[in-house]
Amino acid sequence: MRRFEFSTFQVDDGNRAAFELCHAVSELQPVSPLPVVIVSEPGRGKTHLLYAIVNALRERSPRTALAYITAREFPDKARALIEDPTPLERAASAVLLVDQLERFTERLVDLEAIVRAFLDRGHYVLLASCLPPNRLPHFPPGLRNMLEKGQIVSIGNLRTPTPAAKSPENMRIVSPPQDEIQRLREELARLEQKAAALPSTTELERQIERERARNKELQEQVESQRAAEEELAQQLGRAQEELRTVRRDLDKAREEAGRIAALEDEVKRLSDHAAHLQSEQEANERVRAALMAQLAEKSAVAEELHTAQVQCRIMSEEHAAADADWTRRAEALLAAIEACRARFSITVETTGERIEQLEKRLNEGA
User: Fold this and answer.
1) Backbone angles phi, psi at 65, to 5 degrees
2) Which of 71, 82, 262, 366 could bridge across to 103 with cysteines, CB 3.0–4.6 Å?
3) Closest-CA residue to 122 (of 151, 89, 152)
4) Using CA atoms, how far apart are residues 241 and 245, in angstroms rounded to an integer?
5) Bridge-based pairing state of the strands 65-69 and 151-154
6) CA distance 176 to 226
7) pLDDT tens digits, one per residue of 110-150
8) Boundaries of every domain in the chain
9) For the segment 289-322, what is each residue's pLDDT rounded down to a tens digit?
């Protein structure tokens, strides 16, 4: 298709009008508010001009909406414009190109609908055919009348062979168009018979209306289904939010239970510590009682020692001269007693401080 350009098209007097019209369409110049039909025998360049328009628009105006339809290929995107012409309404410019018009035997209703969709919105419609619209009896009357009222541009005329053209070489040149014309005539006759067996246009229009009503009902059902799905989605969202809230509350409850368990462990540890302190207090009481007993015993001993010291002093006074050795031993014994008393005093002070510390710890534990 890339090889079809305006620059490679051989222009002559027979095709100049079609060439200039197609060139104007490629430049988006005003042409006609009605459809334009290019009519010629096969092989005269109709398809070349249509493809040249496609290539020129893609190169110069890539934003122009373009639809190319043939009897063999009716793209789904083009058919979608019938149900939803929004792209045509939004497009600043759009071009519909239809080739092999005379070969259309099916999708004629869709063809008429898409031609009207482009024309109603002021866009270009260009069709190529080997037969003029008035020789297409199998077309719906509405489509055929619309094409007949449009602009018909012919490329050349059928040539009658001259005597010089009777040579075998010239006969090979002329015979293919004649064979094609005969084939088209036979095809036309077959199509006329087929068209006679087809239902009337009114019945087709009724079928179309029924299909449109059915499509409308289906669209309403789809919209209702979408609304129900949206409602379900909202309910699901609310349920998920509630679930997240419950999970957060459950996590908080678990954290609180963890803190309570930690506090219970701490209480148990403190209870064990208090019991241990109670045991230590009882042990300290026993030690204190023992120390007090020892202190009392040592006090009695000290008293006895003091008495003995007095007696010794008396005896030393009476026997100082005679018993000097005894005096020295008594003084040594006294020094020992004093040392023992000093140690005892230190022991008593240490014991008192320990008892105070234990009582303080007991008070803090309580």
Assistant:
1) -70, 135
2) 71
3) 89
4) 6
5) unpaired
6) 59
7) 999 999 999 999 999 999 999 999 999 889 999 999 999 99
8) 6-157, 161-198, 244-365
9) 888 888 888 888 888 888 888 887 887 677 666 6
